[in-house]
Amino acid sequence: MLTFYTNPMSRGRIARWALEEVGQPYDTVALEYYTTMKAPKYLAVNPMGKVPAIVHDGKVVTEVAAICTYLALTFPEAGLMAVDKAAFFRWMFFAAGPLEQAVVNMGFGWKTSGPQEKRRAGYGDLADVLSALTGHLEKNDYIADGRFTAADVYVGSQIGWGMQFGGIPASDTLAAYWARLKDRPALLAANAKDNALIPEATT
After folding, report:
1. On the CB side of 93, how many CA atoms lie within 13 Å of its CA?
2. What pLDDT, on the 0 to 100 scale, is given for residue 77?
3. Domains observed in the chain
4. What span, in angstroms and rounded, lies between the C-alpha atoms of 191 and 39?
5. What is the value of pTM for the model shown?
6. pLDDT at residue 118 in the model
7. Over the chain, what HEC string results?
8. Is 129 exposed, middle or buried (0-12, 13-18, 19+ CB in 10 A)?
9. Does pLDDT of 109 surpass 80?
């Protein structure tokens, strides 16, 4: 009923965390870059030829933020959807849009300069993005409802990975937020499963 397509060296690790939080059984299909990920069989699932993707009861969901949100809505018993949906959707898609775009652009060595470029980029610059997110987390322990939800899976992953690999400058606020998330049993279980796949994966 639930199939998860991934590579352990991908954003699929975020979706795996969400799946482990949901607690529903699922099958894992590990794909290799440039070969099985671009093969006709998988392109029929995701024409972009990238991971992650899930198929649930014949329905395909791609894009990590969408997967996290879909799982939260489809399995409400897991408690991953917030009552405060305004905060949930606002910051979920803030992370999927401005935050990821700013971090990726900086990683490629491109940054906005001057007010016109900041306006055209849509997100301003990385400092603007982090100021907005940090301001929210200075007032809230979690993204919504004052408790853990699927928004924390996605936003937290962006922050955790960003600080680990240097894409996001560490701050006391962001480090404290990540510290509230990093030892969750579902995340530890997800990491163990993905790490076990790494020798089988190619990059």
Report:
1. 7
2. 98
3. 2-78+187-200 (3.40.30.10), 85-183 (1.20.1050.10)
4. 26
5. 0.94
6. 81
7. CEEEEECCCCCHHHHHHHHHHHCCCCEEEECCCCCHHHCHHHHCCCCCCCCCEEEECCEEEECHHHHHHHHHHHCHHHCCCCCCHHHHHHHHHHHHHHHHHHHHHHHCCCCCCHHHHHHHHCCCCHHHHHHHHHHHHHHCCCCECCECCHHHHHHHHHHHHHHHHCCCCCCHHHHHHHHHHCCCHHHHHHHHHHHHHHHHCCC
8. buried
9. yes
- Give the tens place of pLDDT for each residue, 150-187: 999 999 999 999 999 999 999 999 999 999 999 999 99
Distance of alpha carbon 48 from alpha carbon 126, whole angstroms: 27
